[in-house]
Amino acid sequence: DFDFFRRRITQASEYRDRRSVDAKLRRVVWSESDGLPGVIIDRYGDHFVLQTLTCAMDIRKDSITAAMVDLFGDRVIIERNDAPVRNAEGLELRRGVLRGTPSEIAIEIEGVKLEVDLLQGQKTGFYLDQRHNYGIVAGYARDRRVLDCFANQGAFALTCARTGAADVTAVEENSANIATAKRNAARNELKTRWIEQDVFQFLRAAEKAGAQYDLIILDPPSFTKTKSGLRDALRGYRELHMRAFRLLSKDGLLATFSCSHHVSADPFLQTITDALVDSRRSARRVRQFEQAPDHPVLPTIPETEYFRGFLLEMMPGR
User: Fold this and answer.
1) Mean confidence (pLDDT) of the chain
2) Domains of the chain, start order
3) What does pTM read for this prediction?
4) What is the C-alpha separation between 258 and 260, in angstroms, rounded?
5) What does the H/E/C string look like for 154-186?
6) Nearest-CA neighbor of 192 among 183, 203, 201?
7) What are phi and psi of 5, to 5 degrees?
8) What residues are labeled active site?
9) Hey, which of 46, 136, 300, 316 would disulfide with 250, CB 3.0 to 4.6 Å?
10) Considering just the CA atoms, what is the radius of gyration of the chain in Å?
11) pLDDT digits (tens, 9 = 90+) for 189-245
């Protein structure tokens, strides 16, 4: 087992090296995409986060960690096996430190330093699949009024603020995330308005108040974890986009993302089209976003392409 895992992790690392992914901030192994179904390994500097989401891999966790130590040295290894998907295989949910003593972690994204909590944060601590998109979206933010919805710990909001946005408002309903986002703003000396509120409630109130923005970012958590929840998820996406379109200026931009692998590209685009009709707006598609290159897609396993996003520019009315 040790030799097998060492070989697979080495191959995964070499692939990311060829894609020029930062060696100290990357998804080292991503499940089936790296020939290790159920195994996720993320690296944050000298700290690694391990997930073993299937029974077959969970019982071999010691071999996996031994291979990691052999390849990367005696680093801190944190277990984040608190993903509900483990319930399907009768595995208990747990998280903790497997090796070493964790220290405070701060990563840098597009010149912005961000606090990361590897034990309590979303996923394994940060949304690494979005990493290269923060800079792309921020590149459109200069002199614009920006609204970041589902702001989490503030990566989009703060990168937009750093690149010269005229004004940044960030909405997030989780109080712990808001607290972290405020610390990140203070750390970087960036001015952002933080609002702790449900995004749908905020958007409804903003429309009533006549608010308007030049760039809106929609980066919600997955709207469904199961195929049976697809209809409700699409209904939610449609309302979300409709309300965002109503708040955009005549040539405003919308950066929208979905991380629900049950929501494929065509249905997601259809919800956007329906929302444009509902809001009586027209838009041009400027570009498409993809998951980061350390989350490789296998054509033979469609589920590995779970991430999609689009940048739209509003067209002025007649």
Assistant:
1) 94
2) 2-99 (3.30.750.80), 118-315 (3.40.50.150)
3) 0.93
4) 6
5) CHHHHHHHHCCECEEEEECCCHHHHHHHHHHHH
6) 183
7) -65, -40
8) 259
9) 316
10) 20
11) 999 999 999 999 999 999 999 999 999 999 998 766 677 777 888 888 999 999 999
